[in-house]
Amino acid sequence: MENIKKYIAEAIGTCVLVTFGCGTAVAVGCSSEAGSGYLLTALAFGLVIVAMAYSIGNISGCHINPAVSIAMLIRGQLSVKDFIGYVVSQVIGSAVGCVILGIVFGFDCGFGANQIQAGWTNGSVPAALLVEIVLTFVFVIAIIGVTSKVENAAVSGLVIGLTLTLVHILGIALTGTSVNPARSLMPAIFAGGTALAQVWIFIVGPLIGGALAAVVYGYLEK
């Protein structure tokens, strides 16, 4: 029963992330040329993490992201069984969030799906993969660092949320910023087209970045 509650918490958290994060991108636009929309989208994703960290964090740890879950698996803080349960729950939550967005904005709204941005002069598949690895590495290593000390508990949610905002500020103009395979997978499926063709970048890149963060931090803390 305890594990089921964790999975439900992860589904709820990921649903909120997609609904409010991707929903803000749909509502205000996340083009780098539209400054306010760009920043609002970055803030929306970061503020969701703050809200969820202080609400479901004590239940599931508030991963709401397979890249975070794989890092915790590597660090021995999550079992293989729970890793699978978390990821499945995160994907389900993302799907529910997409349904909500479809009902609110229409099922042709784009769902805030990630893809290589047209305005990125040097945009390419290898460059996009590198961007997602680097952004996820920074995000996840911040999570590991701030949560590794009990005395940081009061501020950890704020730090993690601000870090997610930070990586979005750079990444939106490049890839739309994923750093989260669950956040990317279901919007891409709902949106189809280019987003679906490129979605593997936003699954592989974040998973590599999260794994690298766990390995590097594990080396540094010894």
Structure explained in plain terms:
This protein has helices at residues 2-28, 35-53, 57-60, 66-74, 80-105, 125-147, 153-171, 181-191, 193-198, 201-220. The protein has 222 residues and is an all-alpha fold. It is globular, with a radius of gyration of 16 Å. The model has no long low-confidence stretch (mean pLDDT 95).
Short description:
By secondary structure, this protein is mainly alpha-helical. The protein has helices at 2-28, 35-53, 57-60, 66-74, 80-105, 125-147, 153-171, 181-191, 193-198, 201-220.
In terms of topology, how is this protein built?
Layout: H1 2-28, H2 35-53, H3 57-60, H4 66-74, H5 80-105, H6 125-147, H7 153-171, H8 181-191, H9 193-198, H10 201-220
Helix pairs in contact: 1-2, 1-5, 2-7, 4-5, 4-6, 4-10, 5-8, 6-7, 6-10, 8-10
Extract low-pLDDT stretches: none
Largest sheet: none
Which overall shape is indicated by the principal axes computed on the Cα atoms? globular
Mean pLDDT over all positions: 95
End-to-end separation: 35 Å
